[in-house]
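Hypothesis: this fold can be encoded by more than one sequence.
Test: take the structure tokens below, design a sequence, compare later.
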């Protein structure tokens, strides 16, 4: 576990990290690394690790957040199902930067048949010298539901980071049951925590990090394409084939409850490797992180316009700036419904 005089663990689901009033706080979101660390993936793992190193050196973050599918224990691609070994190698690599990092699980970190389950991976990650992670409450769905509160020099919490497990696959846990979602007990827990923070500081805001995109992301995108000016385009594009969103077929109240609660103003996800879109909808900015993947998608090694990270900067004056951090020089911004792009309003 990360150890510093500016960091402490409050309880089983809460950490606090002190920030300076005199400098910006920079968060680097990385997603879908898909590191295999097996006998079939060596060359592609080197490319992915080089990409991560380049992005970290370029952005100089104060905190790194991995939003799922960091490892890929899928034997036909990586040559191993030992996700415990994969997690230890990832952790050793990230510890080398001496920058605190945290993470949520995706749908591939614990593939069917992999050696370790999420709770066992949680124990591994807790051993990282710069890792901030906890299993969270055992009575909640998922593993790794927790908060990192950014605390100013006066002891106040101007910004809280909510880490949520968006789980893996539907009701029976099998791939063919469809992608899962943030479950109702997690929603209740999160909103209760947001209410408590709001009582302490009515101006407090929060960011939520999880793997699966919300259904409202697709809803907002389709409204924007139809010319709905209430949806505000920020950056990026939808480049998955047939404008695909890897959303759950199951209902979740997370977005609506967040709108009603009013504390969470930013949401960050991964999962759909070619999608990089960021939109503001109903007062919340939803952002796909740029992906790293060289291994998971077929033909991904040759693709480049989607690869990179997302730099989130909390300014000294409390403003938040979110920017794409592409690995290369070219980024796709072609989105229907946005003035200046093909198919504009």
């Amino acid at each position: 576990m990360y150890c510093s005089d500016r960091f402490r663990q409050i309880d089983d689901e809460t950490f606090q990290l002190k920030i300076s009033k005199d400098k910006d706080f920079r968060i680097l979101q990385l997603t879908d690394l898909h590191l295999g660390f097996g006998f079939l993936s060596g060359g592609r793992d080197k490319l992915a690790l080089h990409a991560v190193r380049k992005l970290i050196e370029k952005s100089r973050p104060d905190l790194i957040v991995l939003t799922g599918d960091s490892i890929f224990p899928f034997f036909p691609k990586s040559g191993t199902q030992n996700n415990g070994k994969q997690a230890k190698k990832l952790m050793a690599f990230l510890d080398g930067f001496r920058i605190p990092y945290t993470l949520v699980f995706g749908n591939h970190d614990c593939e069917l048949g992999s050696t370790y389950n999420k709770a066992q991976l949680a124990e591994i990650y807790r051993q990282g010298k710069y890792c901030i992670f906890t299993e969270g409450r055992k009575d909640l769905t998922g593993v790794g539901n927790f908060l990192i509160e950014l605390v100013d020099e006066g002891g106040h919490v101007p910004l809280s980071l909510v880490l949520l497990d968006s789980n893996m696959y539907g009701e029976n846990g099998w791939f063919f049951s469809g992608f899962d979602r943030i479950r109702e007990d997690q929603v209740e827990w999160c909103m209760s925590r947001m209410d408590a923070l709001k009582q302490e500081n009515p101006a407090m805001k929060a960011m939520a990090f999880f793997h699966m995109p919300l259904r409202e992301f697709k809803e907002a995108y389709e409204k924007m394409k139809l010319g709905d000016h209430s949806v505000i385009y920020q950056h990026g594009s939808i480049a998955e084939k047939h404008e695909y969103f890897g959303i759950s077929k199951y209902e979740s109240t997370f977005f609506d409850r967040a709108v009603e609660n009013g504390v969470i103003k930013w949401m960050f996800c991964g999962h759909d490797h070619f999608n990089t879109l960021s939109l503001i909808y109903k007062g919340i900015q939803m952002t796909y992180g740029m992906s790293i993947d060289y291994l998971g998608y077929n033909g991904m090694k040759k693709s480049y316009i989607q690869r990179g990270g997302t730099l989130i900067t909390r300014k000294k004056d409390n403003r938040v700036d979110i920017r794409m951090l592409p690995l290369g020089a070219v980024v796709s911004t072609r989105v229907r419904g946005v003035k200046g792009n093909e198919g504009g309003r």
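The chain has seven helices and 15 strands. Residues 35 and 46 are 9 Å apart (CA to CA).
Hypothesis status: open.
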